[in-house]
Each structure stands twice: as structure tokens, then as C-alpha cells.
Amino acid sequence: MTATDQVQDSRTVTIPVPRPAPPRPAPPKVDKRVAALRRFAVSISVFTIVGHVFLGFEQAPITPVLALAVSYTTALLFEFLDSWATGRTPEYTGGFGALVTFLLPPHITALACAMLLYGNASVWPYLFAVTVASASKHLVRLRVNGRLKHVLNPSNTGIVVTLILFPWVGIAPPYQFTNNFHVVVPWALPLGILMLGTMLNSKLTGKMPLILGWAGGFVLQAVVRWLVLDHALVGALLPMTGVAFILYTNYMITDPGTTPRKPRNQVVFGLTTALVYGVLVVSDVVFGLFFALVITCVLRGVVLAVANRRAARAGASS
Prior knowledge:
By secondary structure, the chain is mainly α.
């Protein structure tokens, strides 16, 4: 080996080592509740516009506009008064995004009342229902999992109180949802609403157990009425084919804020609503869907109140 070879062998070759890529930031967590509210708000807004322009909604076109104005105003006012009385920061503060998120439930409530009620030529029954709905969120509350939450479905509560106090006000006729829809396949609209509502509840709200409990309970009460009271089975099941029933099932009874979270409790909630509905029908009570839901929410509130009292007693005795 020559001297030149020794010099070459003594040289070290540096191999660059690739640096590890910096860790990717974790994707922001998606608030499913807010996402669901946004989908609900967009869906009911589009359906309201389509209903008044194409489907033949019976209410005056100004009705949803005024209902939205009153709903926004009362929601902001009641939240301001409640936060001032309790010494907390209002939920609508924190920027434009926080304000929009806060106004999503009042938006849904306003359009639901404007769509489902029928007050003939009078507009004020709709505005009264919206005001009652906003007030119910602050007047009827219980502590659930350490947080103070409302237990009554706002839209449904406003509708029920209006129906009770003003008997001449009724529910919008079911035909309004498909009044001008005879130019295409008649079942296309109900099927589309059913598919969209099912996707929304299965992916975001997690209320499919409640829907299955409610639908199964509805069929069960119809069969029981047929076997025991000789009611017509087809007539008892017929409401399930209407757009109003589909809207009620996918967009009202599944309200995330006033229904249980656990799947088992959801099934019980749905079955109870169906059972109460059957009792109301047998008792010749009209508009049973809405009365059944408010009664079920009250029963759930009683159960929660008893559970809270037992927990407080157990904590005091330990």
C-alpha cells in the first residue's frame, strides 16, 4: 500500500442524515353540537324558502321574517338579563362567530314555529310562540352533570302553549308541504327529507337510538290500538308517511339540548313519547305529537330532579 492509498483511506466520508419531519399539528376538534346546529339552521332555512316559493306554504311570507326578528331579539334580551342576574359573561360575547353560534337555536326555533303553526291572517300567534320558546330556556332549567340546562324543547313548548291558550290557532295543514309538488314523483320530497335527516342525526347528533325507539314505539302503539280498541291499523300508521311526521322525527324530537345522551336512555325517551302519543289519541286529544313531546320532556325533568335530590342527600350524608 502506497502513501497515497493511506491518505485516501484516512479520509472520512460524511453521509447526511435526513432530519425527521416536524410533527403535524393535531386537527382542530369539531364541535358536533355546533356542526349539527349549523346543518339544522341551513336545512330549515332552505326548506322555508322552498316552501314559500314552490311548495305552497299557507302562512304569509312575512311570517318567518318577523319570527326571526322576534326570536333573535328575545334570545339576546333574555340572555343579557340572565347573565346580569347570575354575574356571568353572556354567551353571545366573544366575537362575531360566538354571536352567530348563539343565534343558531333561536333561528331554528323561529322558522319551526313559523312553519308548523297556522294562525290564519294573524301574525302575532307566531311571535307569541317564539317568545314563549325563548323564555322557556331560562324559566325551566335543571342541573344536569353539573351544568344548568333547559329541559323543555323550546320550539315544541312555544307551539304547545300557543295551542292551549288560543284554541283557534292550529297546526299547519299537512298538505302544505306537498301542495304544489304534484309535478314530480309525490314521494320524492319526503324521501329526500328522510335521507338528509337520517344522515344528520347519525353523523352529528347521535340520536339514532332515539329515532328508532320513537318509530318502533309508534308502530307498537298503533298495533296495540288495533288489537285492543279495534282502531284501523292503516289509519293508525298513516301519519308516518307524511312530511310533517318526518320533520318531527328528524328535526324536533331529536333536539340535542333536551334529550338524553346515553343510547339506552334515548330509546326510553322515544318509547315514552310514542306511548304518551297513543294515550292522547285514545283520549281524543288533537295535535298529539306536540303534546306527547312536551309531556315526555316534563317527565324527564322530574326524573332528573329526583336524581339530583338523591345525589345531594347522598353527598350530605357521606
